[in-house]
Every structure is written in C-alpha cells, then in structure tokens.
Amino acid sequence: PDVLPHLLFTELKPFVSRLSQVLAASFTEPEFGPIEEERENLRVNGIVTKSFVQKLFDGKFKEYPFSVEDFFSLLQYLRIAVKTDLNSYFIPCVLPLENPNP
Length: 102
Prior knowledge:
The protein is mostly helical. It contains four helices and three strands, in the order ααβααββ. The longest helix is centred in the first third of the chain and has 13 residues, at 13-25.
C-alpha cells in the first residue's frame, strides 16, 4: 500500500513488539516525573504522544527499520489509533472497560 512506500516489512515482530510495549505502559501505575504524566494520560484518556513513545523506548527506534512517525502512520492505517493533533493520538483499546470510580 501507499502507507509507507519506503518500507517493506518482512517481519511484523518489531512493530508488534513496540505496540505491545505502548499498550503495556497504559496498565502500569504512574510514579513521578513528566513521562509518568504522559503515561497517566495514556492510561486514563487513551492519549499517547510521539514524545512519550520516544521516551518510552529511549531512542531505540534506531534499531528498527521504522521511525516513530512510521509507527504512528501504521497505527492509523490499521485503525488502532486516531490522530488528535500534531503530536497526539487516541488509542481506544487502552481505555478501561468501566470507570472504577463512579
């Protein structure tokens, strides 16, 4: 497809691994610091930012054949995420099934 014409995926493991790590981050309790505020925003509101993903992987996207931008392009193409603004995306599957605090 025309999504990422500069890439040819022969193995999905790097993409699925990164996606799994982002999803897992939404199930951990926040501690302190800026990355934890972003993790809480993901956990409570389903909003993830490019900067959070970059911090989460500590620049390790260089090890894979795709960038953070490519990662989010794939998430949008696969309808896993929806772009909300320039650097934020909504991932509904990370939201809790019900509100524990009615």
